[in-house]
């Protein structure tokens, strides 16, 4: 049995995960990376106390390399800013 308060919390968690997924999708898109299976993990979103995990899904070799390059470029920018 769930109460209205805990149900709202569950809904909020899923909505927050949806927003985070969308933010990630937009950030990746700005670097030219598209993860075709990016979404919410349905099993983790179920129940009265969901974890609401984001599933990065599968991608091909070219996409994995593009993602790695984007992450390396960002890490290089952050290191340069710290100096």
Q: Could you name the key traits of this structure?
A:
83 residues, mainly alpha, two-stranded antiparallel sheet, 2 strands, 59% helix, elongated
Mean pLDDT: 87
Q: Tally the structural domains.
A: 1
Give unreliable regions as ranges.
none
Please tally the helical runs, counting DSSP H or I stretches of 4 or more residues.
Answer: 2
Largest sheet: 2 strands, antiparallel
- Can you tell me the overall shape? elongated
Coarse structural class: mainly alpha
- What is the string of SSEs from the N terminus onward? HEEH
What is the total tally of β strands? 2
How far apart lie the N and C ends? 55 Å
In helices, the fraction of residues equals 55-70%
**Into which percentage range does the β-strand content fall?**
under 5%
As a whole number of angstroms, the C-alpha radius of gyration is 17 Å
Spatial order of the strands in the main sheet?
Answer: 1-2
Topology, element by element:
Elements: H1 4-30, E1 39-40, E2 54-55, H2 61-82
Antiparallel strand pairs: 1-2
Please give a structural write-up.
The chain is 59% helix and 5% strand. It contains two helices and two strands, in the order αββα. The protein is elongated and about 45 Å long. The N and C termini lie far apart (55 Å). The mean pLDDT is 87.
């Amino acid at each position: 049995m769930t109460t209205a308060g805990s149900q709202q919390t569950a809904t909020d968690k899923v909505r927050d995960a949806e927003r985070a997924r969308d933010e990630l999708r937009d950030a990746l898109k700005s670097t030219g990376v598209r993860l075709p299976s990016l979404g919410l993990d349905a099993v983790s979103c179920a129940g009265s106390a969901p974890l609401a995990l984001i599933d990065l899904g599968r991608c091909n070799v070219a996409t994995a390399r593009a993602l790695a390059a984007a992450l390396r470029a960002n890490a290089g920018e952050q290191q340069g800013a710290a100096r």
